[in-house]
Amino acid sequence: MRSSNVNWIRDHIIGSNTVFPAVGYMSMAGEAIRQLTGRSDYSICEFSIRSAMIVNDTRPVDVVTTFKCTKVTTTIETDWYDIRITSFNGST
Asked: In terms of pTM, does the model score above 0.85?
């Protein structure tokens, strides 16, 4: 992802950095749920961001989204998923 490819991202500047917004992560989760289950309704709990995703034109950011079913026990799965969205800009 480069900021020049996503026009609305320029509205999310903190200091001198363009930061990917938290609602963007939530939208990624919602779209992944829709693609996995066919459902468009979802709930999010225990949401956290460990570090900001800085987006710019000089260094592209690779984004990887992974899901796995949450298990109640070692054999019983639920309708909940654990999601992890990671990004890498070539240096951090």
From this structure: no
Distance between CA 91 and CA 1 in Å, rounded? 15
Domain count, the chain: 1
Residue 29: strand, helix, or coil: helix
Residue 17, phi-psi category: left (phi > 0), alpha (psi -120 to 50), beta (remainder) = beta
Distance from C-alpha of 4 to C-alpha of 28, rounded to nearest angstrom:
19
Residue-range definition of the domain harbouring residue 49: 3-88
What would you report as the CA-atom Rg of the chain, rounded to the nearest whole angstrom?
15
How many CA within 13 A on the CB side of residue 75? Answer: 0
Task: Tokens 């800009």: give the residue.
Answer: 89
| Predicted confidence (pLDDT) per residue in 25-43, tens digit | 999 899 988 998 898 888 8
Rounded distance, CA 79 to CA 37, Å? Answer: 10
